Amino acid sequence: MSSTDADTFWNGLYAARPAAADPRPNARLVETVTGLPPGRVLDLGCGEGGDALWLAGRGWRVTAVDISAVAVDRLAGLARSRGLGEQITAERHDLHTSFPAGRFDLVSAHYLHSSFELDRAAVLRAAGHALRPGGLLLVVDHGSTAPWSWDQDPDARFPSPREVAAGIGLDPAAWTVERADAPRRTATGPDGRTAEVTDHVLLIRRTA
Ligand SMILES: C[S@@+](CC[C@H](N)C(=O)[O-])C[C@H]1O[C@@H](n2cnc3c(N)ncnc32)[C@H](O)[C@@H]1O
């Protein structure tokens, strides 16, 4: 499947639903970042930007990237309308072929799953290298399928956070795993339904 297929799929997914007026931040982002001093953050696969807007509202300078131009344009529009246009750079990137420039205090990848060609381990390795010393890489993956997910593959396998860390393969002399667990939470879907879901949370700090 080509990169054009991925582009068409993700743009179609966003274009098929109305733009979120007030996209919400992810729970694991809020629990990880609350209390950290603001710095520069990179949001990989930002979607319509609930995380980016929340971070910018707390003083972070955000680079937010997604393969979907529809999602990126929606985020840029919301950022401008909330007076956060200077703080959020929303860019279209296919992370399979390009990675944003810059050095960051935090790189966040929430639910960066795709059925299309995407070398996630390589993307997350690049993310680790884009951290400043002391910076954090937060990878939050699905550990179960929500009833409203676009991906209802009954054979889906959810690699554990430790498996994800091993796949990324960052040198333990310079990157330390600070968190690798599978907490549960009550999630709310786009139509207001709720369900219990599992997250796979991996937090890696660059120490050198
Ligand atoms: C499941 S959504 C998660 C969106 C957002 N992070 C959130 O938590 O709501 C996955 C996102 O990854 C993006 N994505 C998928 N493949 C990508 C790629 N190759 N490059 C950049 N973004 C990609 C999709 O467009 C989509 O917005």
Report on the architecture of this protein.
This is Methyltransferase family protein. InterPro entries: Methyltransf_Superfamily, SAM-dependent_MTases_sf. Pfam families: Methyltransf_23. Keywords: Methyltransferase, Transferase. One of its GO terms (molecular function) is methyltransferase activity. The protein is of the alpha/beta class and 208 residues long. The chain has a single domain (3-206), classed as Rossmann fold. The chain has helices spanning 3-15, 27-33, 50-57, 69-81, 120-129, 161-168, and strands spanning 40-44, 61-66, 88-92, 104-110, 131-142, 175-181, 184-188, 194-206. Strands 1, 2, 3, 4, 5, 6, 7 and 8 form an eight-stranded mixed sheet that branches. Strand 7 and strand 8 (194-206) form a beta hairpin. It is globular, with a radius of gyration of 16 Å. 35% of the residues are buried. The mean pLDDT is 95. S-adenosylmethionine (SAM) is lined by residues 6, 10, 26, 45-47, 66-68, 71, 93-96, 110-114, 118.
